[in-house]
Fold this protein.
Amino acid sequence: MTKTAKPENVVHVIGGGLAGSEAAFQIAQRGVPVILHEMRPVRMTDAHQTEGLAELVCSNSFRSDDAESNAVGVLHEEMRMMGSVIMAAADRHKVPAGGALAVDRDGFSQRVQQILSDHPMVTLEREEVTEIPEDWSNVIIATGPLTSPALAQMVRDVGGEDDLAFFDAIAPIVHFDSIDMDRAWFQSRYDKSTDGGDGKDYINCPMDKAQYDGFIEALLTGDKMSFREWEENTPYFEGCMPIEIMASRGHETLRFGPMKPVGLTNAHDGSRPHAVIQLRQDNALGTLYNMVGFQTKLKYAEQARVFQTIPGLEEAQFARLGGLHRNTFINSPRLLDEQLRMKARQSLRFAGQITGVEGYIESAAIGLMTGIMAASQAIGTQWAPPPVDTAHGALLAHITGGADADTFQPMNVNFGLFPPIELVVTPNGKKRKLRGRERKAAYSSRALASFSGWSSVTKAA
Ligand SMILES: Cc1cc2nc3c(=O)[nH]c(=O)nc-3n(C[C@H](O)[C@H](O)[C@H](O)COP(=O)(O)OP(=O)(O)OC[C@H]3O[C@@H](n4cnc5c(N)ncnc54)[C@H](O)[C@@H]3O)c2cc1C
């Protein structure tokens, strides 16, 4: 059907990652023909390993699925209300991960690819787009943090502004059968579980104080990958910081971060570990486990040497070692209008990580919004943004002007982006501040009620 549509009615989506796949699906569901241009496998990125749409390049987690008190969980739920293809595929291919939504990465990607390939309104073209023809009047650029250099240059030329850049780091993945379960054990923190599971979603490797001290020393002195000249002053995003950088900030920093021992008891001897390394299931078969929060820029040989000092990982076989990658994003508050169109060239919209949101689910959520905007333009209907007290509305508002353009950095969804709920009126008429979980619950329920109203008029039939 798309091949016979008039060119001016077609939406071109460039990039078949999390954002581009969701955008293409939302457009197609509204009866608008869409051409999805994905350069893999013709040209690969530094991080992708397959030609699959919506490939997850690092962790297999979409983070918290708690829609009652967590902003990420609220974003998940709002996406479900909109019939998101990313959420449908994630729910179908989830693997145990405590209160988080983690997926079998291959099953997930294959599902997204199958739905889009089978969709009568979608044409998938495997090619690198290096410039945008003038007769493409409705375009979404969703090429992600690893946008190919030629297209990045085109964006720079049009936007008139240099990209910013920083690094994400990949955490290593270990073969399950190489982990010594006589030393490690299965347990979720505080025995929390996914959907009636047994509270044993993570593998835990314990350390006593002497082992922890030695490990920190090994991280600090281990051989690291060096930066290229142009990368040297690139700031790290806090949520994806390499462990050796965290270790360099203080001897105890990791014990309060990814190696915190709280909520865990050694199943072999009943002791409380001084520090813990957790591994989370990475595929449906349960044959692969990733080292949670262990992004690193240690050299490959050093990673194997240092990580094999971890109790339980002495014989570890790594399916994938950690690594470093450049991240490309634009200064959205300065370059884009409220519909994510480039002010300097209105036929171009942006979606995903390149807009300066951070994370799989945030990228997909912006793809969902951009898809609806582009479809509205094609059909000739009015775009009404989601209310700012919703997770989608808060994220959109942030990147299209809420953030300070002079200090703009990528952002995860969090309640700090939502309009505040300062005071509540108690039954006896007094006003008081909400705190802690009660406050988060109030943000969540307000967002979901608000979004439900918006989605009922905006959702594709
Ligand atoms: C190394 C690394 C690790 C990350 N780890 C995590 C993590 O663990 N958890 C998390 O939540 N987020 C992570 N992120 C951040 C981010 O959430 C992901 O990058 C996410 O995939 C972004 O979604 P996206 O759709 O914007 O981009 P992508 O999913 O990268 O999709 C962009 C697509 O565009 C294609 N493309 C690029 N240029 C062109 C072109 N010129 N023509 C055609 N196609 C093109 C690419 O091949 C790719 O398929 C990581 C990022 C990186 C770089």
Summary: The chain is about 30% helix and 15% strand. Residues 14-20, 37-40, 45, 47-48, 57-59, 128-129, 142-148, 151, 168, 170, 325, 327, 352-354, 359-360, 363 surround flavin-adenine dinucleotide (CB under 6 Å). The radius of gyration is 23 Å.
